[in-house]
Design brief:
Strand order of the largest sheet: 1-2-3-5-7-10
Number of helices: 13
Strand content: 5-15%
Helix content: 40-55%
Number of strands: 10
Amino acid sequence: MDPLKDPGPIKLRTEKKMAASMRISKLIWPNLAKTVNCFHQTRNLSAPAANATKQYTLMTQKDGVRRIHLNDPKKRNALSLAMLHSLKNDLLKETAGDEEEVRIIIISGEGPVFCAGHDLKELTSETGRSYHTEIFDACTDVMLLVQDMPVPVIAQVAGLATAAGCQLVASCDIAVVSEKSRFATPGVNVGLFCSTPGVALGRAVPRKIAMEMLFTGEPITAQAALQHGLVSKVVPHEQLEEETQKLAEKICQYSSSVISLGKSCFNSQMGKSRREAYREAGQVMVDNLSLKDGQEGIGAFVRKEHPKWSNSFDKAHE
């Protein structure tokens, strides 16, 4: 079956439009389809009434770059249910009619702590098992969404990232971090093993490094995180935002449809055998070549011109 038979640009304008794009993504991006459908069907992620008016995240967008800033520094940007709800809404938020479609997302945090993980006050016996389940289900949904978004997601980390905060960093496609940043999964210290953070951590760093972090709760430095593959780049603290923005602008120079197709394929093939992975990746490259942007890039290279991207899934040939 041709995954590009019924093309249409994958945009982040509304959940409704994302659902409409499933004609493509259910074939070339099953994880995105499953995750977005999950958000359509899931429970309402309701915060306690006392927090209803609090702005847990701040979102800005310019030239296709969406910035989402975790904004609860008094609680060390903890991933409370309300914070998870706010983060999910900003990831999927509709853009204004005159704004460029989202090309890349940057997640950062207010204050010296990027994110300290879950709000432990929400995890007591008083809140109950059902509420606990809702929190961890909501967190899993957000982490999956971050990885399954049709655009790259960058973590911009200026300080400490622990437990589910470390999980968020590991879930992002790229992590640009300050030299002052540190990373830990310290749940063992409070009697709550970081089992869900371990899912993302164990897929980002070598097994024995992950186990040491999980068993001891000890933080690792930015340089150690870089060495083990948890982060992509370590920069001077004062240059963090500038360096992250440069990287985002570099990625935005390329076709968003090609980036989307490539991200999908990369994540999908990682879970397959080598033979299955090559089979899938080879088919995706053939599909990529059938796109107008695939042919535009090759033609521009031959002509020694700069390509003019359509950023669509329109086809150049069958």
